[in-house]
Amino acid sequence: MTDQRINFLLATPLLFLFILFGVSTITILKGFSIKQTLLNQQQSTSTCESCPDYITKFPCSTVGDSVLGGLDFVQYFVDFKLSDGTYNETQVGLQGYDNIYSVYQNFTYHFLSEQNKEIFDDNPEKYIPQWGGYCAWGIAGEYCPQYPWNSDCLGPSGNWAHWTIINEKLYFFLFSEAKEKFVNEMDGNTIIDAGDKRWSEWFNNGNIKPMSTACYISSNE
Fold first, then answer.
1. Is the pTM of this model over 0.85?
2. Within this chain, do residues 197 and 118 fall inside the same structural domain, yes or no?
3. 157: DSSP letter
């Protein structure tokens, strides 16, 4: 009887510790499970803003149509280039002529002269606008849930009057504030790398990249 009592006394603290730490472990795991469930719920309910009506009702990109309304992109590189190698970004490009055009990757590009067309044909990738001609800040700097942009909702529109050329690449913006934000984020090529990464993630299957043919602004707004 004495031996049984001694064994019980010895086992009791061990049983108490087992119960204490067992309950604590269950509580911790349960707390973690609850937090993870809440996090998953937040992630599943977090959605982008609705895509603007002007994009959902009318396609911004139509294969075969003129990119950004027929704007002559070569003009930005040739006519707006200064003697020191920089560009006069206060200038606004002009629409090319209907009868002077080239077709590249199933989209149509217009030009103000045969010379500009020849320049383009020699190296189209140099002159086509980056990221489809959509607002570069929207592509590289605006994300869900505050903004709706994705591969099925491309925007905002590019504006003929708001542009920059960086590393001999042409970028358009919806308005001057968007351009300012983009330029201010030019720490090395970080913002450009972000835009390139996002664009390639959207269109990495080798299909035709959706150049903007209908969503653009041609005035100096």
1. no
2. yes
3. -
Domain count along the chain: 2
- Identify whether residues 39 and 61 lie together within a single domain: no
| Alpha carbon distances (Å) from 80 to 68, 109, 167, 221 | 18, 19, 15, 19
What is the full per-residue pLDDT of the chain (221 aa) written as tens digits? Answer: 445 444 444 445 544 443 444 544 434 334 444 334 333 433 433 578 899 887 877 889 999 999 999 999 999 999 999 999 999 999 999 999 999 999 999 999 999 999 999 999 999 999 999 999 999 999 999 999 999 999 989 889 999 999 999 999 999 999 999 999 999 998 778 999 999 999 999 998 666 789 999 999 997 55
Residues 150 and 170 reside in one and the same domain? yes
C-beta of residue 102 within 8 angstroms of C-beta of residue 109: yes
Residues paired with residue 171 on neighbouring β-strands, in sequence order:
164
Can you give the residue range of the structural domain that contains 104? Answer: 53-217
- Please report, as a single letter, which amino acid is at residue 166: I
- Contacts within 8 Å (CB) and 24+ apart, 122-126: 126/77, 126/168
